[in-house]
Design brief:
Length: about 400
């Protein structure tokens, strides 16, 4: 029986664990939070910090694993690449390449050096150094930790006087005490956050979504819903596919799933914002099974174990699909989830993670989600009507 080590323990790992078990694979989960829900489904749990590369390496050696993966868990991606390289296990790419993709400052620098479309951006470890560069940027700007996911620690800054406060906020979410400042890009339509897959460095599957946000929440940059097809033009989708392929070739990436964020902007350009060699959160790999009939979870498990992957046939998304990230826009005690009867025929799946009477947050990050709702519509007009008026059709009732 092959052994697969998964870094992290959040619920987005559960479908990976279940699929691995169907394939006859022994699953080990690791993090420093033994109460995380995914550990209840794995065969073995190891209490070790997933950002401690040497500690994870030592556990991996001891357990004689056959593969390692950090699926939908951004902090563990570099560690997985490090362990795979040290133990000569299958990996998405070299540790050096993965480190470039995972660090926002390194990634922006790499894009600039290789003539990709990229906003003015610079990474810092020192607040005072950043304040000296105020005139370098085209305001407004975005301030982010270089090493966090789920939109935690991200703020738009319109006034240079507010920069110091926003930097300190970003640093509070950074394990490396590093942050990045970059020009704020005005998007055209909706930005995209979706999954792709390469085999031996060849981009075999690429997808684009329409990502939406809830501006009434604590963090207006936390994704609140996704829909397919995307609003990015076909011309820019083709350009982005070619640029993603060029990026993978430059970094000598191998076989892997990727969570890729892209944006079409009012300046007439399209940008690769992020490209992480992992499955995304928010069940995006599962949505690709619904939308495009592509099983990225099985492929990810096989790639982590070095098993042969059947050819992936590129396909467009079929129909009009949406995934709503259930959340509250204020803190309180969860009472109920109300869904309009008008949506009864559109609901494909409802997955609620919270019980009545439990405390609920104000959606300051992706970790505050309380469930998901998968919907299918007959046409785009019907879908847009619901997504643009979500509070009319779906209410999270909080006391």
């Amino acid at each position: 029986m092959k052994k697969l080590m998964l870094l992290g323990g959040m619920r987005y790992l559960i479908p990976v664990i279940k699929k691995a078990h169907e394939m006859g694979i022994y699953v080990i989960t690791c993090d420093y939070l033994p109460d995380n829900i995914a550990h209840k489904y794995s065969d073995e749990y190891c209490n070790v910090s997933i950002i401690d590369k040497e500690a994870v390496l030592n556990v991996a050696k001891k357990l004689k694993i056959d593969g390692i993966m950090s699926f939908a868990c951004d902090p563990g991606v570099e560690t997985a690449a490090y362990v795979a390289e040290k133990l000569n296990l299958p990996s998405s790419g070299s540790y050096q390449s993965v480190s470039i993709l995972q660090n926002k400052a390194k990634f922006r620098k790499f894009l600039t050096e290789n003539n990709f479309n990229v906003p003015t951006a610079k990474g810092y470890k020192n607040v005072e150094d950043a304040l000296k560069d105020i005139d370098m940027f085209h305001w407004p700007v975005i301030v982010k930790p270089t090493d966090s996911a789920g939109s935690k620690g991200v703020k738009r800054v319109d006034n240079p006087d507010e920069l110091r406060e926003s930097i300190n906020y970003a640093l509070s979410y950074s394990n490396s005490n590093e942050f990045i400042i970059e020009d704020f890009l005005e998007k055209k339509g909706h930005s995209s956050d979706c999954e792709s897959f390469s085999i031996d460095g060849e981009l075999k599957f690429v997808s684009f979504s329409a990502q939406r946000f809830d501006e009434t929440c604590d963090n207006p940059y936390t994704p609140a819903s996704f829909s397919w097809p995307a609003t990015i033009s076909k011309e820019h989708q083709l350009e982005l596919k070619n640029e993603i392929q060029r990026l993978l070739k430059l970094l000598n990436m191998k076989t892997s799933i990727y969570n890729i964020e892209t944006r079409e902007c009012n300046n007439g350009k399209a940008y690769i914002m992020e490209c992480s060699p992992r499955g995304g959160g928010n069940r995006l790999a599962e949505m690709m099974k619904y939308c495009a009939g592509v099983d990225l979870i099985t492929n990810s498990i096989k790639s982590a174990l070095g098993e042969k992957i059947e050819e992936i046939v590129p396909s467009e998304t079929d129909g009009y699909w949406a995934e709503i990230i259930l959340h509250s826009n204020k803190t309180g005690i969860f009472d109920a989830l109300w869904i309009s009867k008008e949506l009864e025929n559109n609901i494909v799946e409802k997955d609620l993670w919270i019980q009545q009477g439990k405390e609920i947050g104000g959606f300051s990050g992706a970790n505050e989600a309380i469930g998901t709702l998968v919907l299918k519509f007959n046409n785009d007009d019907e879908m847009q009507k619901v997504l643009e008026n979500q509070s009319t059709y779906i209410k999270v009732i909080v006391k």
